[in-house]
Amino acid sequence: MNILEKIVEVSKILDEVDKFDNNISDKMLEYNYKLSDLYHYIENNNMDNKKCYRICREFKKVLKERREFKNNVEIMNEYKQLKLKLTSGIENRQLLLSSLGKRVKSLNMPYKNRIYTEEELKEIMEG
Fold first, then answer.
1. Beta-carbon contacts of residue 55 (< 8 Å; ≥ 6 apart)
2. How far from 45 is each of 36, 42, 86, CA to CA, in Å?
3. pLDDT per position as a tens digit, 59-109
4. How far is residue 102's CA from residue 77's CA, in Å, rounded to a whole number?
5. Rounded-to-integer distance, Cα 79 and Cα 69, Å
6. Which DSSP string do the residues of 99-116 spell out, in sequence order?
7. Which of 55, 53, 31, 58 is CA-nearest to residue 44?
8. From CA 107, how far away is CA 102, in angstroms rounded?
9. How far is it, in rounded angstroms, from Cα 13 to Cα 3?
10. Of 9, 44, 75, 119, whose CB has the highest number of CB atoms within 10 Å?
11. pTM of this prediction?
């Protein structure tokens, strides 16, 4: 094992993680602006079925990307609270990984509606 290579590799990975952290607010703003553009387009334009489908498809794409990004932000926040464990022994790294795994599991829980019931949403979709 070449220790220097391993340290350089770890350093590059940590640089990537820090760059992600440094760009969180800009990236979130970009997603919010994209969604705002789509909302306003819908609000201000008449659309036929084909256009409605296309705008809905774009909405879904942006929302899925944003959800993935937001999940990564949540994992990043958990990591930042526990990152000292990376350098304080194998047992502590295992605790860090376990905590991150729990966070990922909680992020993958299904969404629970706040206002609309499932029945109301199905009724809307059926017209």
1. 38, 41, 42, 47
2. 14, 6, 52
3. 999 999 999 999 999 999 999 999 999 889 999 999 999 999 999 999 989
4. 13
5. 15
6. HHHHHHHHHTSPP--SSS
7. 55
8. 9
9. 15
10. 75
11. 0.86
The closest alpha carbon to 103, from 85, 127, 126, 82, belongs to 82
For residue 83, what are its two tokens? 């990152």
Closest by CA position to 74, among listed 119, 108, 49, 114: 108
**Residue 96 is encoded by which pair of tokens?**
């860090």
Residue 14 to residue 19: CA distance in whole angstroms: 9
In Å, the largest CA–CA distance within the chain is: 65
C-beta separation of 33 from 88 below 8 A: no
Residues 6 or more apart in contact with residue 86 via CB below 8 angstroms: 92, 93, 96
Lookup: tokens for 105: 């599991």
